[in-house]
Amino acid sequence: MKKIVFYDGDVKAFINGRKAVLLKFGPSELVLDGVLTKMFSKQDAKRGFEQIKRFISSASFEVMVLDGFAEALENSSYKEEIIIWLNDHQSNDDFPFIAITGGGKGKFPNLITE
């Protein structure tokens, strides 16, 4: 199964009773009942990614939904650093399933999603 996907449909199916977190990067109307939600502005995306790394490293969640993540990082100076970190860690057994919503597949051409 893929560990990282770009998805614009209903992410509730991905959660399906699993321990999940929703991280919003900018304004979003996405609501997932019973799911821990953290919000970051586009300007604060680097801090948001540091939080993602902590969650992944601690195996805190089975599913992570990153809403608006690609758009927040589109012109950032640390985008490649993030791609490298995700690619290096997603083969770990405890790496969560990550759904990146709000489009952006073309903005991360080097991210391994299969």
Keywords:
114 residues, five-stranded parallel sheet
Describe the secondary-structure layout.
Elements: E1 4-7, H1 12-15, E2 20-25, E3 36-40, H2 45-57, E4 63-67, H3 69-73, H4 79-89, E5 97-101
Parallel strand pairs: 1-5, 2-3, 2-4, 4-5
Descriptive report:
The protein has helices spanning 12-15, 45-57, 69-73, 79-89, and strands spanning 4-7, 20-25, 36-40, 63-67, 97-101. With 114 residues, it is α/β, with parallel strands linked by helices. A 5-stranded parallel sheet has the order 1-5-4-2-3. The relative contact order is 0.27.
In short:
The protein has 114 residues and is α/β, with parallel strands linked by helices.
Summarize the main sheet. 5 strands, parallel
Given helix and strand content, the structural type is alpha/beta
Radius of gyration: 13 Å
Task: Provide a count of the helices.
Answer: 4
Give the tally of β-strands. Answer: 5
Low-pLDDT stretches are none
Which percent band covers the strand fraction?
15-25%
Q: Which shape, going by the Cα principal axes?
A: globular
Mean pLDDT figure: 88
Strand order of the largest sheet: 1-5-4-2-3
Distance between the termini: 8 Å
Which percent range fits the helix content?
A: 25-40%
Topology as H/E string? EHEEHEHHE
